[in-house]
Amino acid sequence: MYIYNTLTRKKEEFIPNVEGKVNMYTCGPTVYHYAHIGNLRSYIMEDVLEKYMRYTGLDVKRVMNITDVGHLTSDGDTGDDKMLKGAKREHKTVMEIAKFYTDAFFADCKKLNIKTPDVVEPATGCIDDFIKVIQSLIEKGFAYEAGGNIYFDTSKLEKYYVFNDFKEEDLAVGVREGVEEDENKRNKADFVLWFTKSKFDDQELKWDSPWGIGYPGWHIECSCISMKHLGEYLDIHCGGIDNAFPHHTNEIAQSEAYIGHKWCNYWFHVLHLNTNSGKMSKSSGEFLTVSLLESKGYNPLVYRFFCLQSHYRKSLVFTYENLDNAAVAFNKLIAKIAALQAQPQGEVDKAKFDELKNSFVTAMDNDINTSLGITALYDVLKADTTPATKLALIDDFDKVLSLSLLETAKNSVTKQENEAEELPAEILALAEERKQARKDKNFALADELRDKIVAMGYTVEETRQGTVIKKA
Ligand code: AMP
Ligand code: ZN
User: Fold this and answer.
1) 16 lines ligand 1 (CB under 6 A)
2) Model confidence pLDDT, tens digit, residues 75-109
């Protein structure tokens, strides 16, 4: 399996540290608000990566943090704590906000068939671990105290900027976004490990520490939570591309300074979901959530399908028109699968199964190319083989794609409409074929198929709810 590694900027063969086992870490959500569908694009694509690894037989342990403290409104060390902003907005405590939006996040994940990681760890549960690592960084000379805060000293590293497709001066924390520089910092790229003094003093959650009462910086939590559960050698770390700098750069700096050797071999970054007007945001434009899509009548799995149609390393533009196109394609796919389910199954053709599976594996092995993976799925539908073979393949691919294909097809409208009548499989198959012909505007074929159904002793009636077929 080959994966594009942001660290080396190359597609590389994925070789875990221990054969057959994968340590995987994912930056979790900041639970101050609902996740927008852009955030969820990252989690969908990471879910596919994890499931594909398992599909190939790898034993994956996946860990994710929940950011419930320390993530400031600027990814540098300025602005307000996002959690505090959420609490003020809703007149609740930070922990109430954290609980509510953590639950909401996992409810969205469930609707999108995103598996919950093996370990989910909130930052507020690991304060002692953060303190231990920060203390060691101070002892090793990688961190210093200034103005009440503890900073990481980036000048102590041979190489700080690891994701350096960017210009260093654009990246330096404190000079981005016109933010004023923190005078305590020895170097402009230094970042806070522990705050006791910040520009806002009403931080709700604070803990005692050797440096005074305060709270951790955002970056230290991912280093510590990862090392706590996955040890000193991480195989793969995931996140959205905006996390590459400064967050992941700082994670590498801290972790490697602490353990004294290379920490993580592969970095998997998902490109952004954008709107027509640019970056998706929770604060401007329409706040696009899974619930909003549902309220407009979309099946959340249509959004998952929409994401899978594109490669994770290309940015993707969300418009309702694009989502509608995905919905049409998804419904067609489901109708075709329902038609297969309605036919006499036959036997699974093992040779054909392996041949068609191979093209799915080839697509996915090539840097998780889900759009070609979907093409492999369409090739199954078109293939010259038994319904049993096709359905077995669909079931197999869906272990990775997680689109609930067989289940959705089983529950699809045509089946429900006709279930009461208990129509024989041949009639159901003809009805599906006719439905497709009508959709394709092939009315001559549709009429021919109707005549066939009638000739077999059934009536065909068009109603507002769809076609109703009954025994004559
Ligand atoms: P946050 O809750 O802000 O910490 O972000 C959660 C995840 O969503 C992180 O991995 C981000 O990199 C990712 N993310 C943020 N915005 C987008 C977007 N527009 N498209 C895809 N992923 C995003
Ligand atoms: Zn992180």
Assistant:
1) no
2) 667 677 888 889 889 999 999 999 999 999 999 99
Ligand 1 nearest atom to the CA of residue 241, by list position = 12
Collapse the DSSP code of 408 into the 3-class scheme (helix H, G, I; strand E, B; otherwise coil) and give the result.
Answer: helix
* pTM score, whole prediction: 0.86
Peptide bond connecting 246 to the previous residue in cis, omega within 30 degrees of 0: yes
Q: By C-alpha distance, which of 309, 318, 340, 312 is closest to 403?
A: 309
Instruction: Take atom 11 of ligand 1 and give the residue whose Cα is closest.
Output: 240
Q: By the 8 A CB rule, do 122 and 68 touch?
A: yes
* Token pair in block for residue 328: 């049409």
**Residue from 421, 451, 418, 444 nearest 432 by CA:** 418
Q: Torsion over CA of 157, 159, 160 and 163, rounded to 10 degrees?
A: -160
Q: What ligand 1 atom has the least distance to the C-alpha of 67?
A: 4
Q: Residue 91: CA atoms inside 13 Å, Cβ hemisphere, count?
A: 0
SS3 346: coil
SS3 395: helix
Residues within 5 Å of ion ligand 2, judged at the Cβ atom:
27, 222
**Residue 128 burial by Cβ neighbours in a 10 Å radius (0-12, 13-18, 19+):** exposed
Q: What separation in Å is there between the alpha carbon of 250 and the centre of ligand 2?
A: 10
Residue 281 Cβ inside 6 Å of ligand 1? The answer reads: no
Amino acid at 230: L
